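can u do me a favor
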């Protein structure tokens, strides 16, 4: 898995969609927030990034419940903070872009059937913000606190982003793979 280069058409598309959806539909003009969310969309283009956390045997952790359990076992530090950030990102990605997948989880016999993705996503971002505060990264701490406090708003904004990309008449050059 490799990151997209700066200025890649997909990065620009997600940035424009996020800014438009949040400002036009929700009245939110918050560049750090929309930049983070468009970056999340770009990072999560590859399922390797969505399921980047691994268990002890090296297999991808695919359920939010397992991610939380793994994070709780880690010692304090950068890795634990990255786990909680990923928990927030993972929950927001599915809650915002694909709420139908989260709803289907509730009907399956799996560990995530009884998990509230919104609650766990908010908690993941809140814990991340506190760890960032402890490291004196005030700007990052503030952003993660806003992601926690405004999780539902961000999820609605991501739904609007999805609606807009699904309604786009013709994908920009080099972006046909996202449909």
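np, heres the sequence
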């Amino acid at each position: 898995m490799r990151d997209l280069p700066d200025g890649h058409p997909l990065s620009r598309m997600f940035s424009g969609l996020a800014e438009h959806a949040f400002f036009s539909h929700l009245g939110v003009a918050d560049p750090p927030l929309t930049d983070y969310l468009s970056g999340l969309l770009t990072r999560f283009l590859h399922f390797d990034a969505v399921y980047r956390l691994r268990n002890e045997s090296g297999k991808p952790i695919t359920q939010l419940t397992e991610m939380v359990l793994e994070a709780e076992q880690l010692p304090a530090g950068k890795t634990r903070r990255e786990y909680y950030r990923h928990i927030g990102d993972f929950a927001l990605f599915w809650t915002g872009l694909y709420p139908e997948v989260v709803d289907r989880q509730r009907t399956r016999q799996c560990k995530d059937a009884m998990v509230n993705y919104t609650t766990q996503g908010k908690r993941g971002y809140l814990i991340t913000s506190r760890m960032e505060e402890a490291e004196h990264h005030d700007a990052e701490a503030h952003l993660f606190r806003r992601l926690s406090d405004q999780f539902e708003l961000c999820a609605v904004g991501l739904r609007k982003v999805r609606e807009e990309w699904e309604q786009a008449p013709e994908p920009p050059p080099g972006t046909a793979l996202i449909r």
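The mean pLDDT is 89. hope that helps!!
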